[in-house]
Design a protein that fits this description.
Layout (H helix, E strand, L loop, with lengths): L4 E10 H9 L6 H10 L4 E10 L3 E6 L8 H6 L3 E7 L4 E8 L2 E8 L3 E12 L2 E10 L3 E8 L17 E7 L4 E9 L17 E2 L1 H12 L5 H8 L5
Parallel strand pairs: 6-12
Antiparallel strand pairs: 1-2, 1-11, 2-3, 3-4, 4-5, 5-6, 7-8, 8-9, 9-10, 10-11
Helix pairs in contact: 1-5
Length: 233
């Protein structure tokens, strides 16, 4: 069984569907109509991440960093620059970018309530098993994990299954994260210092409140709360 290596993931957001959810009735208004129409033929925002891992740590970092700076695009999927998970302390550190500003977030890793199924899926030649989960008691998650990669971790904030998670789907949030390259012969280089900044560190709730204070009045409360689910990924 492998317990270290590198995995490349494709992170795919259906921004057309997320924009319609976020904007609600405003989607057909003059202010946002042209933006929504522009997404009909260009629905997906795709990012590439490389994850390096061993038994104790997982580092998940953004590879392609050039992205649209459109206000709604940013809010639909505020880019995650990097995530460090420390398996020894159950701690998670994340670096987010909003506009030109970086934010350093930290908290204890959230437990995910997993339920195993009999479904199987092949991902890049590795047999994976499906588990359905509930993240923060409200976000429905479908995960495909590989028992042959013996690390209880995965992309972004997903972890806690008996094997590396190679595929994630958040159907209600229109987000998919799937492995596209797997190298188990590569020695990992865990770059945790790029994610941890204790002098500027915020919790996820503090970051959410910060965004709400500067942007929340643009949207109905229920739409805002729905979209804030996605700031973690």
């Amino acid at each position: 069984m492998a317990d270290q290596g590198k995995i490349e993931y494709e992170f795919k957001i259906n921004r057309f569907e997320r924009a319609k959810k976020l904007l609600g009735a405003q989607a057909s208004s003059t202010r946002y109509r042209d933006y929504i129409l522009s997404l009909q033929d260009n629905r997906f925002l795709i990012r590439t991440y490389q994850m390096e891992f061993d038994q104790n740590h997982t580092f998940y970092g953004l590879v392609n960093k050039e992205e649209s700076q459109d206000f709604i695009d940013l809010l639909i999927g505020i880019p995650t620059s990097a995530v460090l998970r420390d398996n020894e302390t159950d701690s998670t550190f994340m670096k987010k970018q909003f506009g030109e500003e970086n934010f350093f977030l930290a908290e204890k890793s959230k437990n995910i309530k997993w339920k195993y199924t009999n479904e199987r899926m092949d991902i890049m030649g590795y047999e994976c098993r499906r588990a359905n989960g509930l993240f923060m008691d409200s976000i429905y998650v479908v995960a495909f994990y590989c028992p042959d990669i013996n690390v209880r971790s995965g992309p972004s904030l997903f972890w806690g299954l008996p094997g590396m998670i190679l595929g994630i789907s958040l159907p209600q949030d229109h987000i998919n994260i799937f492995a596209t390259k797997i190298d188990l012969n590569e020695n990992p280089s865990i770059r945790g210092e790029t994610v941890i900044n204790r002098t500027e560190q915020k919790s996820f709730s503090e970051f959410s409140e910060y965004l709400k204070n500067i942007l929340g009045n643009r949207f109905d409360k229920d739409k805002w709360d729905m979209n804030m689910r996605g700031i973690r990924f």
